[in-house]
Amino acid sequence: MALKLNEMSFESPKLPSVALPTMASFGPPRKAETLKTTLVPLREVQVPVKHSMPPEKMEIFKSLDNWVEDNILIHLKSPEKSWQPQDFLPDSKLDGFYERVKELKERAKGIPDNYFVVLVGDMITEEALPTAWTAEENRHGDLLNKYLYLSGRVDMRQIEKTIQYLIGAGMDWKMENNPYLSFIYTSFQERATFVSHKNTAKLAGEYGDTELAKICNFIAADEKRHETAYTKIIEKLFEIDPDETVRAFASMMRKKITMPAHLMYDGRDENLFDHFSAVAQRLGVYTTKDYTDILEFLVDRWKVKELIGLSADGRKAQDYVCELPLRLRKLEEKAQLIAKRAPSISFSWIS
Question: Which of this chain's residues are annotated to bind Fe cation 2 (predicted)?
Answer without folding.
Answer: 137, 190, 223, 226
